[in-house]
Amino acid sequence: MTTTPETPPPATEDRTIAILAYITIIGFIIAIVMHSSKKTALGTYHLRQTLGLLITAVVVWFACMIIAFIPVVNLVMVLVGPVVAIGLFVLWIMGLIAAVNGQQKPMPVVGAHYQKWFAGAFA
User: Fold this and answer.
1) Which terminus, N or C, of the chain has the lesser number of Cβ atoms within 10 Å?
2) DSSP 38
3) What DSSP line would sit under 23-34, residue for residue?
4) Cα separation of 100 and 19, whole Å?
């Protein structure tokens, strides 16, 4: 019978960086500064996830602002906008939970893309 070696739990500082990345823009910036002095795989992973989520939120917000000036489409955005906002919030919560647990678990649908698109970031 073969046993697989267990991965050691991440250090407290690793988790701190991962968690801070999700707590507001200021927390994200603090996490980047902390990560620059001690680079860790968990910190890098969650910084990429958060960067992707922030960029997605800004793009969605910008698109909604442009669409707001189109009368017919604006009615659709009144219904779709809150659903998208709730979806981004759920992704944020899922990323935060993974960071708290010290897991490198991607956000559903977009997380794997964020890792691929921002592969060079925070390395």
Assistant:
1) N
2) S
3) SHHHHHHHHHHH
4) 6
Burial class (CB in 10 A: 0-12, 13-18, 19+), 60: middle
Total length of the chain = 123
The whole-model pTM stands at 0.82
SS3 for 123? coil
Q: Which of 109, 91, 98 is closest to 45 using CA atoms? A: 98
- On the CB side of 33, CA atoms within 13 Å amount to 6
Q: Which pair of tokens denotes residue 25? A: 């823009």
- 32 contact partners, CB below 8 Å, separation of at least 6: 47, 122
Lowest-pLDDT range of 46-60, 70-84, 86-100, 107-121 = 70-84
Max Cα distance, the chain (Å): 67
